[in-house]
Amino acid sequence: MGLKCGIIGITNSGKTTLFNCMSNTKAQITNFAFSTGKSNVGICNVPDTRLFEIDKIIKADKLVPATVEIVDIPGLTKGASMGEGIGNAFLADIRQCDALIHVLRCFDDINLPHVDGSVNPIRDIETVDLELQIKDLEQIDRKIQKVQKAASAGDNEAKMQLETLHKYKNHLENFQNIRTLETTEAERNVVADMMLLTAKQCVFVCNVDEKSIHKGNTYTQAVEKYLADKNTEMLIIAGKMEADIAELNEDDQHFFLEDLGLTEPGVNKLLRAAYKTLNLISFFTVGGKENRAWTITHGSTAPQAAGVIHSDLERGFIRAEVIKYEDLIQYGSEIKCKEAGKLSVEGKNYIVKDGDILHIRFNV
Fold first, then answer.
1. Beta carbons within 10 angstroms of residue 152's beta carbon
2. Could you tell me which of 240, 238, 205 has the C-alpha nearest to residue 224?
3. Residue in 293, 307, 287 with CA at minimum distance from that of residue 348
4. Each residue of 45-88: pLDDT tens digit?
5. What mean pLDDT comes out for the span 135-154?
6. Which of 59, 162, 208, 234 has CA atoms 20 to 30 A from the CA of 184?
7. β-sheet bridge partners, residue 63
8. Which pLDDT tens digit goes with each residue over 3-50?
């Protein structure tokens, strides 16, 4: 399955700088608000050192990491839901994303004016949230109008839908995001086709200056306090520093990070946080032309994992031969894993675990 993450935030928050650190395509960065009217799209590799460790044992012609599609949404402002700034074009792009990365400006720079006149990340969160909530409310209201007549005529299914829609509407009218609303599967199905903006899981990134990378600053402390009871991920990243790191080769990156007291680029942590937020895991296929990482949802069965590789494999699934990543590293080869009883043969009900190495047997 492909993961699509939208990078959102107030204009001049550092979204595009972060996008350029992560993506294989580069976008122009300016100090002017609303200087672009379209989203930038790129692909980035999901950092996973396990793939390289596997390749040391089982050689292949190439390594293929799991990938994430990154969409840099143009900066938002108050009134975007009504067409201000770049308005509805921004909101339509968000709707297509699986998860959101909300970049918050947590640095001062007199050469980079804030669109609202001062740096205040809490206000920025509330501005973005409000615009998304307004757009969701519009959709909910339209659907209420569609089902109201049938509900009034006694249609029980329509009555249930109407009750559910009002539940969502009340939550939004209290300035709350849908992702914080407790719902049943049946209730979620009522609004599934609407791809509600505030229902999407969100990772918050505090974009700081270099001196704040380890301990943060007063801005990040305010954000941490604000998000404390919201069950969401928050990371601190120095966007300009990450841009410098991204320009270096692997060896130079290592020395640069070591000098800063860091173990890896912040964008690596960000991608893993996005995986965690969406409840995703990786499994591997190995040998021959490629060693490859694949992305699935936690709880997926072996046939579902096979289907991510190719629909024929899911349709004709017979069994999966499974080696745990840790066992391959410990025993040093597939043959030794098999001799030690560490290769298992699993059927259609097997739940794939993070790091599983799968050989799919199928017949179509």
1. 11
2. 205
3. 307
4. 888 999 999 999 999 999 999 888 888 888 776 654 455 444 45
5. 92
6. 234
7. 291
8. 788 999 988 898 888 888 887 655 444 444 444 557 888 888 888 999
Q: DSSP string of 153-190? A: TT-HHHHHHHHHHHHHHHHHHTT--GGGS---HHHHHH
> What is the radius of gyration, based on Cα positions, of the chain?
23
**Residues 6 or more apart in contact with residue 353 via CB below 8 angstroms:** 281, 283, 324
Query: What is the C-alpha to C-alpha distance for residues 203 and 229, in angstroms, rounded to an integer?
Result: 14
Using CA atoms, how far residue 265 sits from 214, 255, 259, in Å, is 13, 12, 13
Distance separating alpha carbons of residues 106 and 125, to the nearest angstrom: 12
Instruction: Give the position of tokens 């009134």.
Output: 79
Beta strands in the chain, from DSSP E residues, in sequence order: 3-8, 40-45, 60-64, 67-72, 99-105, 201-207, 233-237, 280-285, 288-297, 317-324, 343-346, 356-362
Separate counts of helices (H) and strands (E) for the chain: 14, 12
Q: Rounded distance, CA 121 to CA 355, Å?
A: 37
How far is Cα 233 from Cα 262, in angstroms, rounded to an integer?
20
Collapsing DSSP to helix, strand or coil, 321 comes out as strand
237 φ, ψ (degrees, to nearest 5): -135, 140
* CB-based contact 104:129 (threshold 8 Å): no
3-class DSSP assignment, residue 147:
helix
Strand partners, 4: 69
Token code pair at residue 265: 């680029």
Q: Cα separation of 254 and 261, whole Å?
A: 10
CB–CB of 169/133 below 8 Å?
no
Distance CA 199, CA 188 (A): 10
C-beta of residue 49 within 8 angstroms of C-beta of residue 42: no
Beta-carbon-side half-sphere exposure of residue 285 (alpha carbons within 13 Å)? 19
* Cα three-residue angle 295-298-304, rounded to 5 degrees: 65
Of 12, 74, 64, nearest in space to 43 by CA? 64
Query: Which whole number is the average pLDDT over 267-290?
Result: 88
CB 326 within 8 A of CB 337: no
DSSP code for 294: E
Compute CA 204 distance to the chain's CA centroid, rounded to the nearest angstrom.
11
DSSP secondary structure code for residue 210 in this structure:
G
